[in-house]
Amino acid sequence: MSRDSYSLDLLEPGKAVVYDSPVTDAEGARVAALWLRERHGLGQEPIRTLMAECERAGQYVLVSDLPGDGASLVNGDLGVSVVSRLADPGRRRATAAHELGHLVLGDEYSADLGVSTSREERERVIDVFAAEFLLPSGVLERASTSDLRAELIRLSAVYRTSWSLTVRQAGYVGLLDGDRLTSWFSEAPTRAELRDAVGWDPQPDLEGVRVPPSYARAVMKALRQSCVTPARAVELMHGEIAIDDLPETGTSSGS
User: How far apart are CA 142 and CA 145, in angstroms?
Assistant: First the structure.
């Protein structure tokens, strides 16, 4: 993201939300994820737009056509992350939630979640936070077991999670175990099965939306105030809009 709108005082980032208790293991990560859900008034309902929830927690997400999954950093009270658009939707959301976990649980090299554990162990703890934030285990505990695969497909579709994340959560609550748990990882539903599970309603997230809502509003305000050219506004929006989407302005030179 650019500094243009920030240096013009058109963007007012909120303070980063950081969990105030030490998190050193998976169970602590689950508690922290549910704490954030409660703080945001989400209960155990599906998250409609993860971009907005990250923004509410003080992390600005950019979805971009880059290799890999994602990355994040915190600068003072401002958190930013980049998520690759090249992955499938469920994986994009898992990546965004993972990077949010780094912010909420504190820096990965902090004393509580860093010195005494390996990087791989830390990442696993963050993955647990992401899974619980996206699909709370309490939802799985109430799941119907009469046709378990159909139920897990439905939950994957409704909560817009990857199949592997849903299966891991099912394993955590005891719906799957042993060889059955292992085999179900490779039995991912088709796109048609997922869409059919939600009545073929569109379920977009982190696709057409590339930047946070407040950032987009700041860019448009900068355009209206002739602080940036239309071309620069399009560049700042990272592909979310095209030049033809913008209103006519008298701006002829950019910042």
Answer: 9
How far is Cα 110 from Cα 24, in angstroms, rounded to an integer? Answer: 11
Pairing of strands 70-75, 59-64: unpaired
Residue 137 CB-density burial (10 A; 0-12 exposed, 13-18 middle, 19+ buried): middle
Residue-wise pLDDT tens digits, 129-181: 999 999 999 999 999 899 999 999 999 999 999 999 999 999 999 999 999 99
The CATH number linked to 70 is 1.10.10.2910
CA distance 185 to 152: 12
Residue whose C-alpha is closest to residue 166's, from 176, 174, 177, 155: 155
- Crossing angle for the helix pair 163-172 and 119-134, nearest 10 degrees? 90
pLDDT lower than 50: segments of the chain: 1, 3, 5-6, 108-115, 206, 251-255
Structural tokens at position 122: 């830390």
Print the domain residue range for 119: 4-197
Sign for the pseudo-dihedral over CA of 175, 178, 179, 181: positive
List, in order, residues 6 or more apart from 125 with CB less than 8 Å away.
Answer: 23, 24, 25, 26, 28, 29, 105, 113, 117
Asked if residue 202 belongs to a domain, the reply is: no
